[in-house]
Design brief:
680 residues; alpha+beta; seven-stranded mixed barrel; three-stranded parallel beta sheet
Amino acid sequence: LITFLSEHVKETSIETDWMDALIVALDFVKTASQETKEFESIQLILISDLRGESKQEQEEFEHVVRSIKLFKDLQFIFIGREQLIDSVTEKENGHDDHDEGMANGHDNTSDQNGHEKAKPGPSNRAPSPDEKPLTSDQRRNVEAVNSLIHELNGFSTTFNNAFEEITFKKKGKKPTAWKVTLEVGPDIKISTTGYVKVRREAPKSWKRCLARPEGGEGPGTASQPLPGTSTDHVEELKPVTHFVINNEEQETVEIQDTTTSYRYGGEIVTIGEADEANCKFDAGPKSLCLFGFINRDEIAMSDLTGNGSMAFIPSDNDPNSESAFSVLAEAMAELNVMAIVRRVYRRGLNPVLGVLVPELDDDDRRYLAYCELPYAEDRRELQFPSLNNPRHPLSEDQLSAMDTLIDTMDLECVDEEGQSVMQFEPELQFNPQYQYLFQTLTQRALHPEKPLPEVPEELKAKLNPSSDLVEESEEVMKTIIQLFPTEKVEQKGKRTADKVFGEATKEEASEGQDAKKAKLEISSSLADEDGEERVILSVGSINPVQDFEYLLAHAQTTGATIESAGAQMEEIIDKFLASAFGTDLNAKIIKCLKVYRSACVRRQNAALYNTFIRLVKGKAGERLWSDVRSEEGTGLILASEAEGGVEDAEADGFFQDDKEQGQTEQNQSQEEDEDLEDLL
């Protein structure tokens, strides 16, 4: 309706009484509520330019307000032109200079020199040249509408914002208090209350299904289906589970005749109900225990986990807890520390680690924000290469282009009054997936015979950046494309003679079978599982060691040199280092390093490997570098092995520095343990 009115209906000069329309709408709502079950929510939407003169008296107006208040959860919404919305907003914020000036006999909207003053209000919208000033009837109607909004806790909006304000479903939930005692040591206990602050809310699942009964007469049956949401004449479908033996007879087994079993290797381990209950970890009753404090810089944003966050405040009617909580939160804020806690939601649930961080709300009141922390088993060790690659240094033009891109796409801008404004606020954005689901359910409930609607353009626009930002960054995007050229990398597959030279005839194929078999006998390692010969042209990630050795062994046909093949091997090792599979590729990386070092020794090119292994030392993680250090044949090439190698002292110190650093850390840890024992 809103989209249709804004696109197809134009404003006319016909004056109507908007109060009469409001009374008719109330009568319709009253009749509908008597005939149907109670609605979940009711919206009374007034769309008008407020140009007509309202003939209702003050008593009748107050009677309308009282009648609206009789409806539970009724929301009043006014939609109008931007000029009217600005006037209503000014009234709500207490800006009424024009009316006050007219009441005093002069116009306060002009200064001593006769120039018009800037109109107050939060919109700061520049008036259109074709915009006419409000009439006296419109100003009186604006006051009446403002009274309705104030009395009924409603709001006003323009046509441009009405779709998002009204159509989008705002699924609000009442905050539920979780009262718990914060235990600080054995003697200090602070009574606190936690509320869910952020949590990803998913729509209801499709597990609960309803169906109309077959046969019968009357509304709500298959013969007379109701398009509404009433469930008076529907039945719930419940799934029934049967257990059968996996054999030819498919014999049914009762649930009481089954038991829980787990496969442990080749053994089947059966666990009874009593054993299963004893295996569960008992974390105790509901609790929130403090472990200690840590600097805020020690925990990064990537270390936080869980399904949201909570806000903790002191419990009501407990002055001692309020004082203790306030002092604790302020002290944590001054010292810039966070508290590590253990949280048990209720008895029977597993304990979780969490962190309490002092924060301020919109009214500058202190509270403690809670987020969950991962255990050691929850972490993943990821090894990434350094972004500062000395082999491909960044130019000043590239750095400057990226700085310009960040500046042009900055979401924080300054308005005409010099105040900072956000062009995109994530906390105000609706999930487009959920909104489209709600709209399709509404369409199917009201019009079951019509097809489901397409995704509205307003929802699609939410998935893209602002058009203003795109226009501002268009030039710098073109510059970045030129400064960072990219090329398409095709997937490497099997290359056979037929693919390279075309399909052979039957005679050529039969003649070539004997030669291919002889070649396969000579080099069986170069054949795939299906017996087809692999033509190796570069070092791949599947068998990098074999590919590297093949290229160097067949240098006359492949044209490979130690420099070209070595560059390909270095690229493969860099890809392995950047892989998210972590320690799974460590053994493969070590094999590549050993065969690369051996080839450089044979071809007397020690500098090539020594330069690369120094780069690997800066990129590799602790686990990988520890494995490399423990393997023989991975260190620097010595001068006695190849020309251009390093001295023995330098080669020994290449790994010795890491050992000494690890020994120093171990000694420091032992000293700290001894100091702790002395204190005890």
